[in-house]
Amino acid sequence: MNFVPLPSMIFLLLFFYTGIGGYSADIFSYSCLEKKAVSSVDGKNTALESGKDSSTGTLQTIQVRKESDFPEVLKAGQRAAVFLDGLEAKNILIDCMAVLERLEGSLDIPTFEVLFNERSIYRKAFVGHTVEFTAFVPSSYVEKGSNVIQIRISEKAVFKCSFFKVSYLSDASNTPPVGEEAEKRLAKLSEDIKYLSSGGEKFQRKLIILAEYEMIKAVDDGARAESFRGLLSGNMFDPVSGEPLPVYFAAMKMMNCFKNASGTLPCNITPVNSDSFVSPFTDWTSVLCGDYTAVLAIASRDPIGKDVRILLPIPWGGETEIEIIRGIIPEKLKERYPDLPELKTEKEKTDIISGFYEKEVNFKENLILKLTKSGKTKIESLDFTYKKATSPVFMRGVAVVVGKRPNSTDVIVSLRNTDSLNSVHSSRTCSIKAVDATKGDIGGIKGIIPYDKKSDFVEISYPGGKTYAADGANLLLGGVPENYREFSFWVYPRIYPQLDTSLPAASKYAAKQTSPLRKITLLFYVESEKGCQFFAVELKADEWQRVILPSGKVRLPSSARICIVGDPRLPEYAKGNKVSFEFNGFCVTDDTYLKLGDKECKSGLASTRIIDKSKGLLFIFTGKPGSHMEYRHSFKDPMDLSAASEVAEYHGLNYVYKKDAQLLEISGKFPALSESIKQNENTKSYPVDDRLRKILTADELKKVELGELTAVAVEVVMKE
What is the 3-state secondary structure (H, E, C) of 422-471? Predict the structure, then answer.
């Protein structure tokens, strides 16, 4: 049972516990929901008072014989014992909703346990605060006379109870409606699948674990088989191969197992070991499918295998067939996903005698048990049939390839900090790493890099000629403004022929350095506002080229990705050849306008001039007063910058010198007239600094004096 807002929770409680949902008369009930919703415990105050007996140091036991005795708060070292007399020998249900917090300064993970007559029926650790559970007590646990329910917490934790209820359980199951919580959870999962799918093969196990865990929580919130159909979308298929990703089979398994679900069943999962607790990252759910099939699903984000004891009420008796289902990948697809757990099913039989099923099992990540009364319902095998998605067409002739940098006055926004190699994902056929940027010839300048010191180096090969789902090297892009003229990046392609082992060593070395192919096709797709768009670009080998996608063809969202893929049918990949692409300088550009966050940023640069000086350069910029400007200067010959500063008193510009790129970036704001320049009341003109007056042209000086423009001069000094 998952926490829902107070009004909804009260409604559900009334629905469940009036007998409509299968619960019969109350045995014991405590609730403070009417007073306030579940909230965080004030650990600072509560923790100061120890729950231990001051004289003996033993745990204090709070005896509860009526509702008014029940403690709203259990302090560290306390436990509660609820005494119940005259119980009938019937199945019992215990529901609880509370907050569990560790004491201030404690690093221990809080633990919580419920025992019925010294038998553990719930034993779990918690990372978050909220505790919500339903525990089942078989009638065979009930003793004549007095019965005791104990609530125990770890010694460095505080427990605040909002709801605790004990009631008899009838044979019927509960059927909560599909609520907003289930819909929200599945919608969030759909977004997570879209994001993590971009992580390539590396993230597939993580994605499966997350999906199964969240789907189980959704079933608890009322989701049924049809609820999962929304997940079976394009996000679960590889955009290039059209093959389903592993998470597809996780969703299909969950749908198949919960067909014809008619309501939830309570279930206890407790550790076999008396000194351990169920992981806080483990959850489970169980449902009744029809009259004679019960399904239990357990999922954990904890990768360590656990031995647990299952206790599940069964509303029939006699011989029962059991399927124990583990893993995820169907046997016929195991070769495609060798590192992921294979789907395996064990079958066995048991007799249901006392109205419940009990079994000790070991599970890792996921486990499904399907119990069916023999002779009543045929246990169908899991159906994993699927229709392969349509393979995309890579558009040619859309992207433009140039060998020069963007215009020196363009406003540029970098989309990827390659220096830190952030958010990089690779697959089995595509590897990716950070490398020092290769120096080459760009725009007639020799021995320079495009922009960033580090590059993303993608290497692709198909030694067996096979492709796989989740193939490709994914690079995440962020900070894309709403408006831009073009999206571009630099790429340096190479071919490494597979070495012929029959050749002498010297020949092997020579073969690695040269290739008869001088053309390499770059295949990639980007996530745009229209979905995935696929492009093919023909490049020259062994040189830097800039690939440009105009905004009229591609509109990137604020966060996107570019995925680099290959094709074993292309000649450059023949005979197991390796092809590499080195990427640098991902950015968007515009000449007049960009929106950066909430700031509008128009380029007010009107004119630029450069004057050669004996020890450097003098830049003269004019522009609209108070406006933004950007300017980049590429040095034709190797230079080492010594200093850069404004000639006049105004200091509103920033300087970035990229030595390896031989690039000086100047950006900032022109002085605003209201800040530093006052109009002469007699001449109605604006004064000009004498140092600027000497270097401005007559036309520039006239516009500055009229206040139409302001001017800034920057002197750059080179090291001798």
Answer: CCEECCCCEEEEEEECCCEEECCEEEECCCCCEEEEEEEECCCCCCCCCC
The answer to pTM > 0.85 is: no
Vertex 715, ends 709 and 717: CA angle to 5°? 165
Give the percent of the chain with pLDDT over 70.
Answer: 84
What is d(CA 435, CA 583) in angstroms, rounded to the nearest whole number?
A: 10
Which of 54-68, 183-197, 231-245, 519-533: highest mean pLDDT?
Answer: 519-533
Q: How confident is the model at residue 39 (pLDDT cuts 50, 70, 90)?
A: very low
CA distance 177 to 12: 10
Pairing of strands 146-153, 78-85: antiparallel
How far is residue 417's CA from residue 463's CA, in Å, rounded to a whole number?
32
Task: State how far the alpha carbon of 88 is from the alpha carbons of 60, 114, 162, in Å.
Answer: 29, 20, 27
DSSP 8-state class, residue 27: E
pLDDT digits (tens, 9 = 90+) for 106-118: 778 899 899 999 9
Of 231, 257, 234, 230, the residue nearest 244 (C-alpha)? 234
First-to-last C-alpha distance (Å) of the chain: 75
**Six token digits for residue 198:** 């971009």
Six token digits for residue 42: 């004030």
Residues 6 or more apart in contact with residue 55 via CB below 8 angstroms: none
